[in-house]
Amino acid sequence: MDKNVEIGTPLVDVLSEKDKTLEIKILPDRAHDAMSHVGMAREIAALEGNIIDYDFDGLILPRKKTNRLSVEIKDP
Predict the structure, then answer these.
(1) Exposed e or buried b for every residue in 42-60, given b needs 16+ CB within 10 A?
(2) Which of 49, 44, 54 is closest to 11 using CA atoms?
(3) What is the pLDDT of residue 18?
(4) Between the CA atoms of 39, 41, 47 and 53, what dihedral angle is there, to the nearest 10 degrees?
(5) Which of 8, 16, 18, 38 holds its CA 20 to 30 A away from the CA of 60?
(6) What is the pLDDT of residue 8?
C-alpha cells in the first residue's frame, strides 16, 4: 500500500477494486498463518501486487505479572 495512507483509512478506499467483495476461504492447514491481521494483510497485498513491509524485531510486548498460576505436584 501507499506509505502515505493514513492509519484508520477504510480498506475499500485503499484497494483499486471499489465494488468487489473480498471473500476469504481458509484451508485448515493454513489457519495458523492466515487467520491473523498480518496473514490477511499479506493476502491483500498479494492481490494488489504489493509486498508487505513490516518489522516485528523491535516490538516488545509487556508481560503482565498478575494472575500467574503455580502448580505443586504432591504425588507423582
Answers:
(1) bbbeeeeeeeeeeeeeeee
(2) 44
(3) 67
(4) -110
(5) 8
(6) 83
- Digit-coded pLDDT (tens) for 13-55: 887 766 667 777 888 887 777 778 888 888 888 888 888 877 7
Could you count the other beta carbons within 10 Å of the beta carbon of residue 26?
14
**pLDDT tens digit sequence for 49-71:** 888 877 777 777 777 777 777 88
Grid cell locating 72:
505443586
Q: Which of 48, 57, 58, 53 is nearest to 38 (CA)?
A: 53
* Non-local CB neighbours of 48 within 8 Å, separated by 6+ positions: 1, 15, 16
State how far the Cα of 23 lies from the Cα of 21, in Å rounded to an integer.
Answer: 6
| Per-domain boundaries in the chain | 1-55
Taking a C-beta distance cutoff of 8 angstroms, is the pair 24, 37 a contact? no
